[in-house]
TrEMBL record:
Residues 49-324 form the Interferon-related developmental regulator N-terminal domain. It holds the Pfam family IFRD. Residues 369-422 form the Interferon-related developmental regulator C-terminal domain. It comes from Strigops habroptila. It comes from the Eukaryota. GO terms for molecular function: ribosome binding; translation repressor activity. This is Interferon related developmental regulator 2.
Amino acid sequence: LPPARRRPAARSPPRSPQVSSGVPAVSALLRCPPPVGLPSQGATPAGSEAAGEQAQEEEAEDRLKEHMDNLLDKSAKTRLAALQSLRLAFSSRTLSEFLLARRLTLTDSLEKCLKKGKGEEQALAGTVLTLLCLQMGSGPEGEEVFRSMKPLLVSILTDSMASPGARQSCATALGMCCYIAAADLEDLVSCLSCLESVFSPPSTSEGGSAPSQHGPLHCSALQSWSLLLTICPHTHIKSILDNGWLRLPPLLTSSSVALRILAGETIALVFELAQDMEEDLCHQDTSILCAQLKVLATESNKYRAKTDRRKQRSIFRDILHFIESGEYQDDTIRFGLECMYLDSWACQRTYQAFKEVLGSGICHHLQNNELLREIFGLGPPLVLDAATLKASKVSRLEKHLYNSAAFKARTKARSRVRDKRADVL
């Protein structure tokens, strides 16, 4: 966000004119304007607060216009600073009305950054493009942005000489923009094929080992591919269920823990889609897959980081449980006064994809962005007054008491399963 507006320096009240008698002094004071900083007789605190908010909004919009103009600056440092500021603003606020009239200009500037910029600039431009499409929504405006930028995104993604960071950002942008704004099945299928060619080269599809180079690129491509899989029609999903999903198990042997986890979650998503279509995935390799998942769910190799092992075991236990029993363990996401339940792998993949792009701004967009609320079935945004918001806030003492009680309960629960050999010795 733009930096906070500086308060104007305090001014001393205007002096009354020097007069000899008291009566002219009173009339002169009555004619003087009220001191700066004090409300006039007709002004109210609510009116002055609204005027201050409007002034701050106008200043923020002026700063955004300045950042957009800086995208065409000759200095690469200035363009990078402008892209970073736009990314922060788009991810933390809803600016659809402001961007609606400026989307064409901004799209052209981002296209120039993607064509002529270097690795970091291209990566930031891809992220800002994704956020722009998210702000525009799934209407004609968002579709226009996606159609105009799709060829360039595909070109950078499939260019082996391009920067890995730029290709990773373009993979995310291609998947997210297609998910949000693609209206034709042809666009969806072509994006799926392009992304699949990145994370599943011919050597992997033929049973080879998982790719070892550009791990983050393969993670972004696989994440975007699985996101688009959640909106595919049944006819295309059936072709993937027949033989396409067999390209995923080789990725479980990757040296990247993030790629292994994403591959496992995508396999669980494929089994869930098959379950919804009442299709049977009892392939001859399914038993081998379950054995591989059990190894990953109980792996304790010391050459892997402790946090990576813990995260991998936890996620693959859930994946194995779902494939064997068909039950998904629900997750709860709380934001403001609302909460959202993730009751399927498709919902979990969609939420993780948007969280990856929005970062800490995901809560704000879940509360105010109509597109996200429509995707997750949250209804229209809630309209809350200041009194309701103030009453919903938890005091510091209540937070302290809650944390103390939770800590005590957690200590008691863990003490029952801890090793007691120290007491025996």
